[in-house]
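Figure-free illustration: sequence to structure, shown twice.
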Amino acid sequence: MLFNFFIGIHAQHILRGKVVDSKSRQPLAGATITASANQSFNTQSDQYGNFSIRHSSDTSWVWVSLIGYQANPVFLSEKGTTKIELQTAVIDLKDIVLKTGNLSKFNTLSKIDLDLKPVRNTQELLRLVPGLFIAQHAGGGKAEQIFLRGFDSDHGTDIQVSVDGMPVNMVSHAHGQGYADAHFIIPETINKVDFGAGPYYTQQGNFNTAGYVSFSSFNNIDKSTIQVEGGRFNTCRALAMLDLLKKNKDKQSAYIASEYYYTNGPTINPQNFNRFNIFGKYNLAISENTQLTASLSSFKSKWDASGQVPERAVNSGLIDRFGSIDPTEGGNTERHNANIIVAHRFKNSVNWENQLFYNRYIFNLFSNFTFFVNDPVNGDEINQAESRKILGYASRLDKKYDAGNWKLHSFAGVGLRFDATSDTKLTRVVKRSFLENIKLGNIKELNLNAYVQQQASIGKFLLDGGIRFDYLYFNYFDKLSLQQMNAQGKSIISPKLNVQYTFNNAIQLFIKAGKGFHSNDTRVVVAKDGKEILPAAYGMDIGIVLKPVNNLFLSVAIWNLYLNQEFVYVGDDGNVEPSGKTKRQGIDLIARYQFSKNLFANVNVNLTKPRARGEIKGQDYIPLAPTATSIGGIFYKTKKGINGGITYRYITDRPANEDNSIVAKGYTVVDAAINFTQPKYEIGVAFENILNVEWNEAQFATESRLFNEPAPVSELNFTPGTPFFARLKMALFF
């Protein structure tokens, strides 16, 4: 192969280019470049818009295309890098072409969905991922509960979330392992949503079992925006995105975005939820081949919450559905981020990217799930809090090259993440006033990783294999006993393999297999002397992608996922709760259809059978694991004028406990939005729950006791879903 590689270099010429948006100068990733003279010579632009293509001549015409942009013929020369400017166009599904070597088709889907349905909040960002459901149950300020592929992932235990390469998940968090609070993201700054289901991705590490979600913000924006919104429940939102450097954006660019949000929510006890975000990003082309990107952001949030309510309290008339047993729940949180990325492209088409990030995080939460079970006088309210610093570094090399008839893409990377928390605590409180400490300590956790990945395509086959090494070090100082617990270290190796076979432009088969893991909380690790604290996940997908006609895209996958151990630290009571081995089997369906130039439809259907392994049949249900979900909608999209859509999300009834004696109720909620868009302004209105159905958002099988009740009762406790809600939006562009 090396011999053929050098022969190929001698016989061919390398033509280089960079693809950018004609207005914003935003680098365009995933553009397809095809040599006109020979359709077998094709490649895609990387995340910085760069590409290189081999050709038998030192000049050539190539065809450049990307969904959402007008395709262009471009003349390339071997001298220098050709700048290719693409102009935006209305989304057209015919631009999705199944090709060997294209592993980013789901990225393309997220681009379509993001373009057709602009998001209004971070919850809707997560809902762009097919099969992903979320539930909020603490007044809007707490991280959402996430459901994916038969997992109740709590707040992120089994799904890895990141933004611009920075982790969102918090290890050994005061409230729960993998806690992923994405409220510091301003949705209008997001350019791309990358996602994948299953543990098959070499570059994704801890918590990538059910899947991963990776957000990327715009490098450049093409216009400034001032936007205000207002709606029911005293809801208001103000957004400003300002383009700070409008000239010579290929050399440097900068923008700043800020957001303020306030709502009382539909609950009788006002949420007083307020959030402030600010985000700034700067890009500098140090040279033609070296790019610097730096960003800073800050986020603060404070809220009150009505908490979960028992069904018996509502059914008896003690409280309204939107009432509260303990109205003193709530909290505050903040996060501050600094992120620097330097990328260099060598003359031999090797890309080297280095990233350094720092996060400062503060969390303070008051909750009461059981009311008067443990303390009949003061109640069971608890306070979970922590102060955290995160330092991270990542370095990655990648290179595309040919070796004979093989097209190869190699990756290698190393990274580290160090978390240091102080005063991570669990305390008993009454009306937010301190009673006693249950847990209090300082945590230090280190994750070192390294990986290699190789993609190779020949003919109709694409092979993608990799192996990942992670080493985790856990250290805990118990401030109540003034004891330094025994530090523990543990490593895990995760192999991955993906195979793709493209019959033609209409049919593509794929098989994915891999191993992933989620780490356990440091307090569990030291308590168990490092035994069984990196539970592994083993998965396999077999699927088919179909493009039978230009206006239809289909993807169907059958999958299995096995977890060696589903136990995590239960931050709500300070105990360790092992739940044994589990298995999940399912079918995922993704469909996109274009009726006409401006009318689109999408649907995602996910069916799952989640079970505990080794348990008696009928006692082997996994609490709150979703078994059937679906999300879809119809959208009308034009570059200007009337735009809008109507969407639904559906989840069926599911077991809330191991024997299915308590059932979490399913629901169907329908939302809609309509906008009138012009080059200088936009007016729109959004509706949530337009049918005004009564639905439960978060649900739990909980043992709780009301004041003066003789004994605790185990039943369904829930937070009510939002009733009919309307919000008006006005935006100015300049």
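We now fold a second protein in the same way, so the two outputs can be compared directly.
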Amino acid sequence: MRMNRRSLLASLLLPMTVSRLPGHAWLARADAPAAEPSWRHGIAHFSDLKYPAGFKQFDYVNAAAPKAGSARQIAIGSFDNFNILVNGFKGRIVFGIELLYDTLMISSLDEVSSKYGLLAEAISYPDDFSAASFRLNAKAKWHDGKPVTPDDVIFSFNALTSTDPQMGAKYRQVVKVEKTAEREVTFTFDAPGNRKLPQAVGELIVLPKHWWEEAGPDGNNKRNPSDTSLELPLGSGPYRIKEFSPGRRIVYERVPGYWAKDLNVNVGRNNLDEFSFEYFRDPAVAVEGFKTNAVDWRTENSAQYWATAYNFPAVTEGRVILEEFPINNIGGMRGFAFNTRRERFKDPRIRLAFNYVFNFEEMNKQLFHGQYKRTSSYFEGTELASSGLPTGRELSLLEPLRDKVPAELFTEPFTNPVNGDTNRVRDNLRQAFRLFTEAGYKVNGQRLVNTTTGEPFTVEFLSDGPFAERAFMFYKQPLERLGVEVSIRTVDGAQYAARMRDFDFDVASYGWSTSLLPGSEMRGYWGSWASAQVGSENVVGIRDPAVDVLIDQTIMAKNYDDLVACARALDRVLLWGHYVVPQWSYNKMRTARWNKFSYQHPLPKYALSAFPTLWWWDEAKAAKTR
């Protein structure tokens, strides 16, 4: 698909050229006069910006919010790293580290996909989206007082894409980054037409080149971007690290001279003087810590705890508030993910058999108090989720791929098997056994074995904690009824990250979050290129030409209706590939807080809880909780 786009680009450029002149003027024709770049204060994907140039503040903030107080939050596990460059695949990054850094642009939380200038006061790009230039704010500076420069942006891009495979996948289409003026940096893309790529580049976290190139704590060697570190990092953002205890506690404080504190995009934000994360190894202990007022805020991910653990006096007295916030800004898939690099999981019939065995309905009842619904899309919870049979534009996208996708995609709506009662469970186990048989397995002495090699069918579920372990334990019993040898391996966070990075697993619980306007990150999620990249998010190992084509078509969509059709077609192909056994979803964020804080009602649609960014310390409320 990349070759096709390059060929198309070459043909389009035959009668014209695109020249870059001083000041970064764009030429529509080779003989056209130079024009000044069109600088914009923000960028939207398929719609107009809500906020005009020179706007005073976002509508959803309280500009008069007091700057005071502190908040203590819960984190589960431990940490041993402050280096955001190796986040997610080396060591255990500390919670909240992103608030030390500013990005080029910042999202508006009451628009689907709009970004406004932060480090970059303006953005410019040609009509074909083949490049993007950012003009840095002259006031932008690091916490040590030095200015943020184009060299910092270039260093950050190169460091992030070389150390983090996920960033490498996200920015794979960027072929050049260069300084084009004193405060201007330009990103050149490998092909035109990707409308979201300028926005994606605007999300870039910018790091201080001069700090990274200085000698580290030993005084001799430069700091290594590829190493974990607990050295206090230098940032440019609203907060800095005040103090920490490795693996136990991290405290952030608001930077008094933060360069962007009065910028329109920051008015009414970052109101707390301090906030901290208190680390707990065990979620049950964390809940008890919350009850004793040792922490102020908890995001509750356990349906069981939400149903049973918050019936205590402070709740009935109003000193603790339980509140759910709707999830409108993201969708996605979470499931039992197969490592298709392993020979026994290459056959989609085997993977489908696992879905027939999974009794979601009984698990939801016994473990989750009936709170969840079954996930049935890679874009669950969004308009991009497919349903029924493909028609119209979706069908026209899939027709050229008919010989590359399962035939059932055109004749059967995708549905997960339904269990929940004895008869259905029995019927689904029969279907699973039939699929195992078709894939070359038989029962021998109560063990499922390969008919050719005689090797037993084994599976190891890789777990990183008690929640995943409980689900795997529930799954184990029906698989063993079929003769599958099941083991569950629970490892600590660092080992889990390392094994997932190296694709050293059979089946793991894994998820992909998708935005309302997905872009190049999908190549890192499900694209063939990423399947061989150690540390990528294509943990399943998908190598499917139809998936690659539809990812590219979704990324290159020229309008929203086309994007929806492309994403739904992609969703169908992924679902019918049976790469995961879909798990469950809940469309709200569950939170518990000691009643010490306030926020402006209503919160913006795409904010989740926005704690603590949009909240403020309420002294009158706090006095009643003491």
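Summary for the second example: Residues 422-438 form the longest helix (17 residues).
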